[in-house]
Write a structure and sequence with these properties.
about 800 residues; alpha/beta; seven-stranded mixed beta sheet; seven-stranded parallel beta sheet; about 20% strand; disordered N terminus; binds zinc ion
Amino acid sequence: MESSAAPTVSAGHDPGPAPVDLLRRLRARGAGDPVTHVERVPARVGVPAPWPAWAPPELRAAFARRGVVAPWQHQAEAATLAYDGGHVIVATGTASGKSLAYQLPALATLLADPRATVLYLAPTKALAADQLRAVAGLELEGVRPACYDGDTPRAEREWIRRHSRFVLTNPDMLHHGILPGHAQWSGFLRRLAYVVIDECHTYRGVFGSHVAHVLRRLRRQCARFGATPVFVLASATSGDPATAAGRLTGLPVTAVTEDASPRGGVTFALWEPPLLPPDSTAPAVPAQAAGDHDATTDLVQVRRSALRETADLLADTVAEGVRTLAFVRSRKGAEVVAANARRALDDAVPGLGGRVAAYRGGYLREERRELERALLHGDLLGLASTNALELGVDLVGLDAVLICGYPGTRASLWQQAGRAGRSGQEALAVLVARDDPLDTYLVHHPEAIFGAPVEATVLDPANPYVLAPQLACAAVEAPLTPADLALFGDGAKEAIDQLVEAGALRQRPTGWYWRHRERPEVDLRGEGGAPVCVVESATGRLLGTVDGGSSHFLLHTGAVYLHQGISYVVDDLDLADGCALVHVEEPDWSTHARDVTDLSVVSVRSYVDAGPVGMFLGEVDVTSQVVSYQRRRIATGEVIDTRPLDLPTRELRTVAVWFTLSPRSLASAGVQQADVPGALHAAEHAAIGLLPLMATCDRWDIGGLSTALHPDTEAPTVFVYDGHPGGAGFAERAYGTASAWLRATRDAIAECGCETGCPSCVQSPKCGNGNNPLSKPDAIRVLDVVLENLPA
Ligand SMILES: [Zn+2]
Ligand SMILES: [Zn+2]
């Protein structure tokens, strides 16, 4: 949830050096200049708008009591669009006050029509609870807001169904509870005026595709009762939000993206840790042979680690008296950064190290408040934290933010950078690149960060593995009719035919009927196979679930598994029982699973014939097996060893994008025949690393395969596929943006300063072949051939 952007007042504190001077001193420290770009993000003056004429005085007064004297322009614009009956998505930055954009039309309608109702959906119970506090705090007569989720006591449920006019829930509860019980909810659904979908960028991939159909089922039930609610969506900044919202809801949606809330100026530096001199390069530890793969080369560390660099920067800013927050991905990483910074400070001035601390997700509320207080008053000057700090913590008045590694999306990056800056004060933000192709690309391509948003929220409602079970759920709620085919979209007829053939549906003159007694079991957050439960051995406590597809990677025996910032080690993965037993432990290493893959083409959906180059999108069958895992030292990234695993193969029918090149074009580009495998393999690794630039996905969502001769394409080929049954939209997005995606891949490789390839460009920590063979210069030649021929 976000409060509207009210100015904050911080305690008095010496502001320290100006960001520009501070940055100059930081970059003058070492031999070379690690800064690749400095962006000055100017302060923005907020643009307030008058209250819309339709907003009733009592609502304005309620907001005024909460400190909102007038809406910002984007809030008023989105609110009026929705009030006039248009579906709208507001996609603006953190703390820009998106909640007012939906609260205003929804609450105005509830006040004007004493029968109308509103359904609010949040991805988590915690967010729904926050929003409940905000709406209840307005103290509006007759709204009676209430949360309805798995924790709601039975005794209260009936009261909520009958009397609440602002019900806050989550998609899982809508799917498992509200829609199957639509008869009991008929009074509420009949009068439903608005559906609010908060943080809708979290509905991506397979989960997002499921939610898209849950929303279609909701629209279908409303239509049966004669209601056509207006959808209002709120999203973090993202690429093409109108299209994503349209896919999610199945409706035409207007986007409001111009952020009119005020913000302080930020000097934003992109920082690439220097390459280590060759003699100091940590030697590769010989890897144990994994399966039938003889791993000869391995990840060699050639750059200073982002953690060490961040620790030094933290020590330097604290020494300057600058209040600094460092964001580090893992809790262990945050502790390493804090410990190293403390040591460096104590070496310089004994006792100074005490002003740096690590901040972890697991802290009790009182401990967190104490840290906040110490930082606010300057007793504490430096804090290293996981992004747990993004949630439920109120820190104001920081002078600098260090971000150790790109956090995955621009939305998170801005959320973290947005922590810096007191009202009216300039602040410094530094993104420290990790040794990863995407980080390398970004520090050399500031336009991808500061220019137009590039990553889009991707989902694919046509995925047959999602569509068929969702249609089964819909059929239980009410028989499917030909009119429903358009609602559920592409592939609905084929999916229904399959359900009929499988004996799940029966066709009658009035529609398709569910044949069984029991409802189908469909988990929105799982897929295909059953999800694997993560259980704490000592207590039997269920920590959470991981979908079957990722479980071999994340929960193999010996894996270090992070859950809400706490580190666990897996004792045993029991696939027969679908559970992984874990214990709390924070070793000095992280684990990286590796797999080997076989792939065959099933069908081609679309292709581009570009002379010697072909670009394809289609279905493939992937057989993969996680064969080993690598342990890497957290502080340095150094490889400790590679350990074999004994896991079964997995079969996956999914969607892939692939490109082929003629052997002749490779030869004339100067790629020797013997180097073709290494060239394609290196291009594949980097291409996978850069795909998150185009679509919000991470490593576990995508896989790849490259070969100098594939039996199905009869040519040198690179495949990149969705790691989810039926595909999740990532390969499709890659195909749609192929030239931009491969251009970025090519640039990331070419711009890495290493000589023969490193983890910042063409090496991959999850490679099943031990990063062998790889040819960095030839990968650039391969991608040049593709880009020269492929239409933009
Ligand atoms: Zn490199
Ligand atoms: Zn590989």
